[in-house]
Write a structure and sequence with these properties.
Two copies of one chain form a homodimer.
Chain A lengths: L6 H12 L8 E2 L12 H4 E2 L17 E9 L5 H19 L33 E6 L39 E7 L2 H15 L3 E12 L28 H7 L14 E10 L1 H5 L3 H8 L37 H4 L11 E2 L2 E7 L5 E11 L2 H10 L9 E11 L16
Antiparallel strand pairs in A: 1-2, 3-5, 3-6, 4-5, 6-9, 7-10, 7-11, 8-10, 9-10
Helix pairs in contact in A: 3-4
Pfam families (chains A, B): Dyp_perox_C, Dyp_perox_N
Subcellular location (chains A, B): Cell envelope
Family (chains A, B): Belongs to the DyP-type peroxidase family.
């Protein structure tokens, strides 16, 4: 049998150079020894894995998402968790540079052994891959792993919310990994290989593919549209808003070193009843959202980025221009004690259900300093008429440790 | 309520200009009056909707797929089918130019009516969208729609194949629409709006999202990799191989005008047992496929595009370099009376199943002049050791009418 290259070994050589990457900028890298398939900037982008905070939170939102939640195996110990996070960190360092996992990759090593890497991302650029790790509340349960003293005080399971219809099998989890990339195959490849590495210590509980980001974290990204056809995330916190990030996103740690510079991650799978929505009058759609469908301007007028004027009155009707129960009003910081979240959701479409309805909606992801931000705003949305057209069908809640520096592994302080 | 733009009306004005597009080249178009979000060539690409053959077959393979199969409603008549194809053709002309469906789009028309277009593709470029229509064999059943005399002689339901485990609910269908685009939201938007237009005449039976093309139709596209990590589609028929297309893809019509220049479309949802595959030795993976995993060269040596030498003997083992049951040998034209297919499949990933295994694989799409091409090759693959790692879980079979010209609608001759 002829093997014309040992790409994994070539990569081993490239690794030393790759390790010099870092800092705040965007560097270029190649996945393997082949010529790059494209010089496209989105394909060749890389983001540093190390930093004060984990990547994939304020990073410019990539085009595609693969999100996985894992459960530890029944008999896993604290040491299993520690070695898993060590191994995942090592693999993530490779992946974030557009490299394969392991030292011998997909086609190196012994032909008598399974390849270390699954290989489907060979020839693809790094595609701006970021990998973000989170820990579920159950890891800190007393008597389970001996981590109860490491639990941030606010880190308790989310309460129940009005109207939610959660599927347990696709909710929760002991650990999560958010992989974002400009190519879906690169995001899926990352999760798949991290799952292989977890074998015997943790297995996937649920996973979610998303596309079409529904928010921006930088001002040069146009505001995308969700599957209701409206611009979504206009008022999202941006990466350059240091004061807002400090106030709303980055945790001081609640006394836990591993969480200082971390944040809380909430996911909600929000099914949209799009066939019903699509039969709704345009003016009703706009009244429910509180924004114009075309430009995305608040119904009080002007442009997408104009602050809503909640007191403005429609001359035509004599009522408030932005209805009292409009989504934009109910969710606005002015009516939620100033609270904001950093959002990073994606659209999803998964064929159709047994009733012939499209299985589609928003995979909502938000980062916040305190779970109260999500809880309070979600409670305020209980009277949102949008609820006629959406269902929260799955939920995830994780604490995202601070970023790693100088060769640390993720959540290293957890085991100190 | 303020509405700052009537983008649909702007589009009405743009439509006349858009109609001048056509011919064999790639033109530029904008979805709405906004500045384009990107000058990216993939985003701004358009392909002509009219032509001798339908688009989306030899068109350079786009990055994303949304494929839908529809059933006619129980009491639908031949006239319902005809008007549906008329309406779909009209909408597809708009969509292929990167425009919204209808005359008033997503934000024009009366605010008291539901918008004509669902709106989620506003602001996105045309993204090379192609829409390809097909007809299922059940449309031609005697006594159903009066179309029995229009049935091509070879157009009968596919036989059963060894080892397949087909799910009826996600197989078959009276009609199909293949939407391919460089942005998944554009492909999903097309199917969603065609489904709305079909309301009362047909509804979606099943739909499939795909990403990461697994074949190329032009020589400048690098061969992509499937989820087994191998290059896939190396030997695919290319758009510039006129003799091969005439010999293997384009039908002479079998006496039916509507089918002259058409082709048969087969879809197979092929679940991969990737966890098992990933634990297989590299040399076994390569022996099963018959190709090197790194470069994609046949195991008889040289480069990806070297013809396999099926007689070559391995000096190490004394056996054939390409094993007698290797996939590349079993599927090769030399062992299948010269038969070839034009392939256009995509990878899919859909979270994981109840056993914790990844639900992922290949959504196989192939176009061929005769169903025998698929049937004979699939039968030859019954003894493929790859079957240990794959399951055919869904199947579709459709006759794709010739392309439309001069304002015709799809399958117009069917009703002559």
């Amino acid at each position: 049998m002829t093997r014309v290259s040992r790409r994994g070994l070539l990569l081993g050589g490239a690794a030393a150079g790759g390790a010099a990457l870092g800092g705040g900028g965007v560097a270029l890298a190649l996945r393997d020894g082949d010529a790059p398939a494209s010089a496209d900037a989105d394909e060749q982008a890389t983001y540093p894995f190390e930093g004060e905070h984990q990547a994939g939170i304020t990073t410019p939102v990539q085009r595609h998402l693969y999100f996985a939640a894992y459960d530890l195996t029944a008999n896993a110990t604290r040491d299993d968790l520690r070695t898993l996070l060590e191994d995942w960190t090592e693999a993530a360092r490779h992946l974030a540079q557009g490299r394969e996992v392991g030292e011998t990759g997909a086609v190196g090593g012994s032909p008598l052994a399974p390849p270390e890497d699954t290989g489907e991302a060979l020839g693809l650029g790094p595609n701006g891959l970021t990998i973000t790790f989170g820990l579920g509340p159950a890891l800190f349960e007393p008597g389970r792993l001996g981590l109860e003293k490491k639990r941030p005080a606010l880190f308790e399971p989310l309460p129940s919310f009005a109207l939610e219809l959660l599927d347990e099998a696709t909710s929760g989890g002991d650990l999560c990994v958010q992989a974002c990339a400009n190519d879906p195959q690169v995001a899926v490849h990352a999760i798949r290989n991290l799952s292989r590495i977890a074998f015997g210590r943790a297995q996937i509980r649920w996973a979610q593919l998303g596309y079409g980001r529904t928010s921006s974290t930088t001002r040069d990204q146009a505001t995308p549209r969700n599957l209701m056809g409206f611009k979504d995330g206009t008022r999202n916190i941006k990466a350059d808003e240091a004061d807002e990030l400090a106030a709303h996103v980055w945790s001081g740690g609640e006394g836990q070193d591993w969480f200082a510079g971390g944040t809380y991650l909430v996911t909600r799978k929000i099914q949209m009843l799009i066939e019903s929505w699509d039969r709704t009058r345009l003016d009703e759609q706009e009244a429910i959202i509180g924004r114009d469908k075309g430009k995305g301007a608040p119904l009080s007028g002007d442009t997408e980025f104009t602050e809503p004027d909640f007191e403005a009155v429609s001359t035509a009707t004599g009522d408030k221009a932005i209805p009292m129960d409009a989504h934009v009003r109910l969710a606005h910081p002015d009516f939620n004690t100033g609270q904001r979240m950093l959002r990073r959701g994606y659209n999803y479409v998964e064929g159709n259900n047994a009733l012939g309805q499209t299985s589609a909606g928003l995979f909502f992801i938000a980062f916040q300093k305190s779970p109260r931000q999500f809880i309070d705003i979600q409670n305020a949305l209980a009277r949102d008429p949008l609820n006629e057209y959406i269902r929260h069908v799955a939920s995830g809640f994780f604490a995202v440790p601070r970023g790693v520096r100088g060769g640390e592994h993720v959540a290293q302080d957890l085991f100190a």
